[in-house]
Every structure is written in structure tokens, then in C-alpha cells.
Design goal:
Blueprint: E1 3-4, E2 11-12, E3 18-23, H1 27-30, H2 35-38, H3 44-47, H4 50-62, E4 67-72, H5 83-86, E5 98-99, E6 102-103, E7 125-129, H6 140-147, E8 151-157, H7 159-172, E9 176-185, H8 189-204, E10 208-210, H9 212-219
Parallel strand pairs: 3-4, 3-8, 4-7, 8-9, 9-10
Antiparallel strand pairs: 1-2, 5-6
The structure holds dicarbonimidic diamide (C5J).
């Protein structure tokens, strides 16, 4: 049986069961002037994972394995954005406000688009999600079932928010999950480190973590 060298122990690959989910690699989180920056964050650490994430995506495509992308964004009328979310964090501008890349976190605006380096290919699922987790109010569960996936590699931003929320729900739904250590990032290095450690703690209580090199070797 093939494995991915991972922590806390090797991840056993099942035939035809593996897919990649790339979370929220959008201009609004990665480029200056977007939502992440409006919360007062330095976006440069997130830009640093773009090459490794691109390599991971390319490896899945080359292996003929599904790649699914998500985008955190809301309808133009904000009907899917709870006021409690919009008001949180003291961002200025905040969700729905005009910014240098269009209205912040609004579907169809330039800032909500996935960065060009990681642009989805035709035929790859792109899930627009109003929550932090990618299952809430989206067709993600049905898409994964249709693809017959039972094992998921996760990449994207931010590690402790949308990536972790989605990975934990996937784990609860019975998926075996691997977080790509060098294809995920946070605005807060300590939060990323804590997330990696808590996911793989207690015998992979929520999943595994592995480097992009080890994931690509495993699926190669
Ligand atoms: C955040 C995300 N951090 N994609 N969104 O608000 O993690």
C-alpha cells in the first residue's frame, strides 16, 4: 500500500479516494488592500506559500487527482453575511465596503478571486462559502460524495481559521485529512504551529500533517 510520510505516523493511501482542497487563496487574503490587510495583518507570510501551493496543485493535476478550490465571499446584498460577522474585528474597510480590489469579500469582485498563480482549471470545483468552514451552506459534501473521495489533503489560508474549520468538519464527516504544512499559512505564526500540533495530537485526533515534498512523493 502507498503511504504519505506524515506526522504523527504514515498516512495510508486508498486507491481512488484522494483529493486536494485549496482553501481561500484569494486576493482578499493574500494581496495588500484586501480583507486580511484591512484587519491590520501583514500579508507577506501568506504570499510566501504560493510557490509550494502551486507545486502541490500541479502534482495533483499530474496524478489525475481532483482539485477543489474554495473562496470565502458573500452575495452582493450581504443576505448571507450575518451582521455579527460583518461587525467583527473592527476591519476598515469591512465586508461589503469598497476597497482597492472592489467590494471586500463579495462574490464577483476582483478581491474575491483566487490569485492568478493558483487559478482553477476548467472543470475544477470552485466553492463559494459564506462561513469559515467550507461545508456550511455549500454543496461541498455532495461534490466530495460524487467524486467518491474519502481522503483529503488540505492547503490554503488561514491555517487556524478556514483551513482548520473545514478540516475538522471533514474529519467529523469521516474523511481522513492531511494538512500540507508548507502550503498553509497564518497571519500569526504561533497559531499556525499550534494548529499543526493540535490536528496531529493524540494519534491524529483530527488528521495528519505532511510536507508538500512528502505528499508529492506519496502520490507520485
Ligand atoms: C479568515 C480565512 N481568516 N479564509 N478567513 O477570516 O481563513
Amino acid at each position: 500500500m502507498s503511504v504519505i510520510t506524515a506526522a504523527p505516523f504514515d498516512f495510508p493511501l486508498q486507491s481512488g479516494a484522494l483529493g486536494l482542497i485549496v482553501i481561500d487563496m484569494q486576493r482578499d487574503f493574500i494581496e495588500p488592500g484586501g480583507f486580511g490587510a484591512s484587519l491590520g495583518n501583514d500579508v507577506t507570510p501568506l504570499q510566501a506559500i504560493v510557490p509550494t501551493t502551486a507545486r502541490l496543485i500541479a502534482g495533483f493535476r499530474a496524478a489525475g487527482l481532483p482539485v477543489i478550490h474554495t473562496r470565502e465571499c458573500h452575495r452582493a446584498d450581504l443576505s448571507d453575511c450575518p451582521p455579527a460577522k460583518r461587525g467583527r474585528g473592527g476591519a476598515s474597510p469591512t465586508i461589503g465596503d469598497p476597497g482597492p480590489m472592489g467590494r471586500i469579500l463579495i462574490a464577483g469582485e476582483p478581491g474575491a478571486e483566487i490569485i492568478p498563480e493558483l487559478a482553477p482549471l476548467a472543470g475544477e470545483a470552485v466553492i463559494d462559502k459564506p462561513g469559515k468552514g467550507a461545508f456550511y451552506a455549500t454543496p461541498l459534501g455532495d461534490i466530495l460524495a460524487d467524486l467518491g473521495l474519502r481522503q483529503l489533503v488540505f492547503a490554503g489560508v488561514t491555517t487556524e481559521v478556514c483551513v482548520q474549520s473545514t478540516l475538522r468538519e471533514a474529519n467529523d464527516r469521516g474523511f481522513e485529512c492531511v494538512l500540507a504544512e508548507d502550503a498553509t499559512e497564518s497571519y500569526f505564526p504561533a497559531f499556525k504551529q499550534a494548529t499543526l500540533e493540535m490536528i496531529r495530537a493524540q494519534g491524529a485526533i483530527a488528521g495528519w500533517t505532511a510536507t508538500v515534498d512528502d505528499i508529492l512523493t506519496g502520490i507520485g
